[in-house]
Amino acid sequence: MAPRLSPPSLVSTTARRLLPVAQLGARRLRRAKSPFQMTFSLTNRCNFRCEYCHIPLQKREEMTTEEWKDAMDDFVAGGMGRASLIGGEPMLRRDLGELVRHLKGRGVHVAMNTNGWFVKDRFDEIAQLDLACLTLDGPRELHDQQRHAGSYDRVIEAITLLRSRGVPVVTMTVITPRGAENVEHVLDVAADLGFKAFFQLEHDASCDVDAPIAPLMNDGRIAALADRLLDLKERGRPVGNSRTILRMQARDGRRIGGDCGECYAGRYFGYVLSDGTVAPCLLTQWQQERGNGRERGFVEAFHAMAAPKGPGCGCVPIHEVNNILDFDVRVLFDALDMTFGHALRRLGPA
Q1: DSSP alpha helices (H): ranges in 79-133?
Q2: Please, is 293 exposed, middle or buried when counting C-beta atoms within 10 Å of its C-beta (0-12, 13-18, 19+)?
Q3: Under CATH, domain 7-15+39-346 is a member of which superfamily?
Q4: Which of 30, 134, 223, 313 keeps 20 to 30 A from 213, CA to CA?
């Protein structure tokens, strides 16, 4: 099991995490930018070739370990309290453990998205994570067909190991036409292993905000799926999507919450691509000058970055954060539980 925090350690950790929250609140009142939550795309490389993702085909230079540390330190000084590590597959970076420890040493809440393939072999390097998000698309046959042969068993093994060692876990299910019929399987696994499952419509593999979303599913089917997930959530099933998001999706369909101009991406959260490009989100990465973070300084590039443009998206994590920033109490409660709940659950006798 993960080591338990002593009361003084818990107080210190909580205080360090509350400071960026206070900075965010003050800047929100002034309508000033604040890079509170940043996603670091460490690499585009991946050991999978998922049928709905072309990120591994997008060739980008990768920053060195020291460059990533400098970028992280810049954002911590600028008010970052939460960080996510993604790829590609972030566990292909040999320095992943070093980067996790670097962020944790600065009091940052650290999450990571992974396909789970390398978790067993490199668990000690990621044991300090505050949250691990793994992709689970459905039953073994469907999951392996959409993602990688043998990956279903590996991701179940990874989830079981992470849960047994005290690392909080959520899953993300990419909803394809076939996957839409298998949400119950994912929820059965979530209930058995003790985690929340999130569900996300398939976006265009090229990560372009102007490209179609879930083109093989009509609006009626999307709305029906949102209503179904909402009903399952009301019945106590471990659906991670907030009620707010599910109701928005039932109403709006594939693009929820308005166009990109209404999004907080680039104002209170953003992305850093592997080559040092700072962007509002993955879907609008092409609207930014490549390498702007390396060229100008990362926080400066964030503040200078133009607002994203486009018709909007259906990205569940983005819209959950948008609702938190709009002070939706129900969404905010879930987010606070993910941020501080793990530390509280670890409080106990040394």
Answers
A1: 96-104, 123-126
A2: buried
A3: Aldolase class I (3.20.20.70)
A4: 134
